[in-house]
Amino acid sequence: MKHLITLSTLILACSAFSESRHSFTTTLSCSRAEFLGPDTRLLSVEGGAKSIHVICTTIDTPRKTRRLRDGTITSDSAIPYIQGSYTGLPLGDYEFIRRERSSAHTEKVRGIQTWTNFESCSVSAEDVPEATLQQNGLLVEKLARLSLAKYAADQRIRAGASQAVNGRSLAGFTAQKSNVNFVRFADWATARGIQYSYDSAKCTISFTRNGKSILLPIAAKAVRVNGTWRDLPDIVMISPDREERTLVPVALDALTN
């Protein structure tokens, strides 16, 4: 019998590691959940997958990629992955999805790997029913976005100097290792008088500024301005506290002006 794993149950089971895991994980219906710090395994998950496994780690040495004969880039691992995401949106510095052997031989697995220069996240859904392959692809990407964004902040975000935006002083944060300055997105939007909307399925923020259409994906190292992707100095993160506020590099202000 499937049941909903509640937030209170998760905190009781693994309170020492509750901050590094995004709360979206707690809304998924499953038969059993196992937590080892940022690592998560959900068994008999909604959507029919036998299991979903989330693994977040820090990176000590750069991850390797290689180019296949057809020109595509793959993660240099024993499991076949190909560069891209299920939504087509950027994720981390690099994003790779599990490659199917052929249309006639579907592995019924949905997986995604993503990493920055400092941390990585891998999410896989095993034994996925044919009818829910697309649904589970979007689910593992959502888990990867939220997990990487929260884990990166948990590892690297610290309080920093206040930041001046449009004459207002905003609370500032600094990402260790990249030394990039951040502010809360909501604070920045308020300072600029910007109205925005959040797509919870794709984990994207949309708004208009100076007549320009802006799309900002969580955990991406880029922002789309009028259809053109512009590089950010670090990924969009989620604050390492229970409020889970979206944190954006201060450079977003100039890139979207």
How many DSSP helices?
A: 4
Over all CA atoms, what is the radius of gyration?
Answer: 19 Å
Question: Could you report the average pLDDT, rounded to the nearest whole number?
Answer: 87
Which stretches of 5+ consecutive residues score pLDDT under 50?
1-18
Strand content: 35-45%
According to DSSP, the number of beta strands is 21
Instruction: Give the structural class.
Output: alpha+beta
| Helicity, as a percent range | 10-25%
Order of helices and strands: EHEEEEEEEEEEHEEEHEEEEEEEH
Domain count: 2
What features would you describe in this structure?
This protein has 257 residues and is an alpha+beta fold. It has two domains: 3-156; 157-255, 2-Layer Sandwich (Copper Amine Oxidase, Chain A, domain 1), CATH 3.30.457.10. The protein is 17% helix and 40% strand. The protein contains four helices and 21 strands. It has helices at 7-14, 133-156, 185-192, 252-255; strands at 3-4, 29-30, 32-36, 39-43, 51-58, 65-67, 73-75, 81-83, 94-98, 110-115, 119-126, 157-165, 168-175, 180-184, 196-199, 204-209, 212-217, 222-225, 228-231, 237-238, 246-249. A seven-stranded antiparallel sheet has the order 3-4-5-11-10-9-8. Strands 12-13-14-21-20 form a five-stranded antiparallel sheet. A hairpin with a 7-residue loop joins strand 4 (39-43) and strand 5 (51-58). The longest helix has 24 residues, at 133-156. The radius of gyration is 19 Å and the shape is globular. The termini are far apart. 35% of the residues are buried. The model is unreliable at 1-18 (pLDDT under 50).
